[in-house]
What does this fold into?
Amino acid sequence: MKRKMLLAAAALVVVAGALVALGRELGPGLPQSIEGMNPADIAWVSISAGLVMLMTPALGFFYGGLVRQKNLVSTVVQCFTIFAVACVVWTLWGYTLAFAPSAGGMGLIGGFKHLFLRGIGLAPDLAYTDKVPALSFYFFQMKFAAITPALIVGAIAERIRFRSVLVFIIVWATVVYAPVAHWVWGDGGWLRQLGTLDFAGGIVVHLLAGVSALAAALVVGRRRATGPEEATGPANVPFVILGAALLWFGWFGFNAGSALAMNGVAVNTLVTTNTAACFACVAWMLIDWYLVGKPTATGAAIGAVCGLGAITPASGYVNIYAAMVIGLVAGAVCNFVMVLMKRSRLDDTLDVFACHGVGGFWGSLATGLFAQKLMNPAGADGLFYGNPHQFLIQLFAVGVAAAWGFVMTIVVLKLIERVMGLRVTAEEEAQGLDVTQHGEQAYGGLVWYVPSVVSPRESDEPIRPQVRYTYQKKGPGGRA
It folds into this structure.
């Protein structure tokens, strides 16, 4: 133990020294003034970044409430730590891969111009906006890079190793998310050059996370059967409602903050975002009421999230009436797909594909139908406003991003499975990931991992005692 502590301390000193040296090299010369920029725009983007940050722990509550009680803590902590890990990746190399000018001018990936945030200061990056500092733009986009991989873990909850999750997030954010973000949003990105519209992440965030979740569920496999005495429903319905409410609140920053200014586009985006969520929530609830006989609380929460995901790519380009249609269709279609998925052999634990994948797919196509330059001069008119070409562009972009996310996620997970494994053991899965991965319970505090000897059956031959592991609550004085 002492040796490990010394090695850890030495590593920390080395990393800290390297960062200090890097700061001394890259820090001087960065503009230190925001003169010429609107403080209101800077304030709005900063507040929006905070709202989007809230969404990742809110997702933890939303997902944690939906899983079984023995996996509540593990699900929440996965979302919480994914936020931290993804932010580290984004800061060191993710941002430059996504938003630096295209390497070689090919539009496939950003170059290393902003590696370790080189050149990112208070001056604006004119490739994206002249309204806010480049540092604000980096900070805002970092929150998108954090929540997107967190969405995926809902598909493989209750059976994935924590260390495997962390490695997956690092690799996926680098080789899957960053390239697609560059294609759609980056300076010189080829889908951006083609004219793809994605105001706040219907393709880059929701569609990409949804198809990646589908691939992850396919690779990791189904959850093992539980005993007849074990409850399989949501662990905490109030957590589901709380998580959905906080997601809804944070989504205003997610979508309207993407205007990168407090202007008419941002105001319209606030309204379309809320409208679509309301109509999707009501649509889902009414369908549940008709099919099941009762309007479920979890259904209403899930429906609202589906509407929010669907309006995301279109929110800055469409009017309120289009938002109503987008929300209604999302609530109905996502519900239908979820029912079909439950009848299949694929085990997407929390229906990430049905909600985010299908919602992002529909919303991105709806952008090609309902977009108007009247609502946003920086956009384009859609099919219903005389421009069928925009719908074809959206369809093509959706297909490319979905194929990339699905195939590359399978490749990444297969490599991790070969190197370090993905799933917990059958015993650990039965016990629950809260105890086996984190030594904690949602209701009951810390748990010690205590070996106990199981006596073998009596026999003439000498047999070594078999050792199994049980879990006991920590008692006074640190003893079980």
User: Anything to note?
Assistant: The chain has 15 helices and three strands.
